[in-house]
Amino acid sequence: MKNLFTDEVLILRAGLTDTAYGRKRDWDHASVVFKGLGNVQPDRSFEVRSPERETAQERVLVYLPFGADVGSADRLRFGSQLYEVDGVPSPWGHRSLRHVRVRAWRVEH
Questions:
Q1: Contact (Cβ atoms closer than 8 angstroms) between residue 54 and residue 39
Q2: What tens digit of pLDDT does each residue of 44-97 get?
Q3: 15: closest CA among 7, 6, 26, 23?
Q4: What is the CA radius of gyration of the chain?
Q5: Residue 2 DSSP symbol
Q6: Rounded distance, CA 106 to CA 75, Å?
Q7: In 3D, which of 39, 54, 48 has the Cα closest to residue 104?
Q8: How buried is residue 6: exposed, middle or buried, by Cβ count under 10 Å (0-12/13-18/19+)?
Q9: In angstroms, rounded to a whole number, what is the distance separating the alpha carbons of residues 86 and 75?
């Protein structure tokens, strides 16, 4: 079977930092927790248009090798685009196509 993982993917993770309003992720000092090949597929995209703002969202499904270190608060870089992980990644350890499925999204204003 041909290798299904052909797309270069980075998974970024940021620690929490204290601010005057609470805690937030410090993305200026994020670290790479996974760098390797995956499979990125389009999921859906949609636009919201109003007189105040035009917003477009893009969602993708990303398949990573089984055991890849990815969490629900991480970010994912594919090409020049940065995506937010959406929900808890889903490991699939059954049969021959073991993988981790990740839903991710980005917003463009």
A1: no
A2: 887 777 767 778 899 999 999 999 999 999 999 999 999 999 999 999 988 778
A3: 26
A4: 16
A5: -
A6: 10
A7: 39
A8: exposed
A9: 9
The answer to whether the CB of 67 falls within 8 A of the CB of 43 is no
Q: What is the average pLDDT value for the chain, to the nearest integer?
A: 91
What was the pLDDT predicted at 2? 60
DSSP letter string, 21-83:
TEEEE-GGG-EEEEEEEEEEEEEEEEEEE-SS-EEEEEEEEEEEETT----TT-EEEETTEEE
Region 12-27: mean pLDDT is 93
Closest CA to 68 of 13, 3, 25, 2: 13
Position of tokens 């005057």? 20
Query: What is the percent of the chain with per-residue pLDDT over 90, rounded to a whole number?
Result: 72
